[in-house]
User: Which sequence fits this backbone?
């Protein structure tokens, strides 16, 4: 018999009134794994109970799940809309302490966004803790196609992975200075509706070894499960196509195997 999990009365974290289009999400919450503190020995992390909240028409905030307190807030002009939830990343120094922390956001509309690059503009700014006064050290980059979702810290070097709406994957360094175009669109006429990043298990590593890819086993591994839907099927269709992409980073170059 399957085990059951029950959800009690949830506590309200924060409430927003957001005006969006049918294609935009009103608000979203992302975990801040990079705000975790290192445990004894530095081999694992312990949750710090912080989340990153992205709200259309409001901006990006950091909240504590312990007391619903807003710890940081970056306000955006009303005309700026986000294409996907913002993501957080912190770079650790050699001693295991957090050095610099960054926030990444994809713009769906705004002063720097045109119809041509809508959903393809990524901003990164620095989180200076309680001393933050705005989008400090903001930099930006324009990708070649609209983005469905972002994943930070997919490697130990801190690479940023963009999952595009056409199913292609793009890997960039955390400073956005070097971009690797590492996969082609899944197929013509499809759009991504869901994806999930997963770590490679020891069993999968053994499988890769048996498939004679042992030369890759010293790198950083992530599985990207991408679910796409044919555009002409409509939102009510239950016909989906599943694709699994294996992203391999060897520490120097970016390689992808589908």
Assistant:
């Amino acid at each position: 018999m399957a085990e059951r999990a029950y959800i009690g009365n949830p506590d309200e974290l924060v409430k927003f009134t957001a005006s969006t289009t049918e294609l935009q999400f009103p608000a979203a919450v992302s975990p801040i794994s990079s705000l975790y503190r290192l445990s004894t020995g530095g081999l694992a992390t312990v949750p710090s109970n912080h989340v990153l909240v992205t709200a259309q028409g409001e901006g990006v905030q950091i909240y504590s799940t312990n007391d619903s307190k807003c710890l940081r807030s970056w306000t955006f002009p009303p005309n700026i809309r986000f294409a996907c939830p913002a993501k957080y990343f912190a770079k650790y120094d050699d001693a295991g302490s957090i050095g610099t922390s960054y926030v990444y956001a994809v713009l769906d509309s705004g002063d720097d966004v045109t119809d041509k690059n809508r959903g393809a503009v990524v901003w990164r700014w620095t989180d200076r803790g309680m001393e933050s006064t705005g989008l400090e050290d903001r930099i930006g980059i324009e990708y070649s196609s609209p983005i469905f979702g972002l994943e930070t810290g997919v490697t130990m070097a801190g690479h940023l992975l963009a999952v595009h709406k056409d199913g292609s994957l793009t890997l960039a360094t955390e400073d956005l200075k070097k971009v690797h175009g590492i996969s082609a669109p899944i197929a013509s006429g499809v759009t991504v509706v869901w994806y999930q990043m997963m770590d490679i298990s020891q069993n999968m590593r053994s499988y890769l070894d048996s498939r004679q890819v042992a030369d890759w086993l010293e790198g950083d591994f992530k599985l990207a499960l991408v679910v796409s839907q044919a555009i002409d099927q409509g939102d009510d269709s239950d016909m989906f196509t599943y694709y699994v992409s294996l992203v391999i980073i060897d520490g120097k170059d970016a390689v992808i195997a589908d």
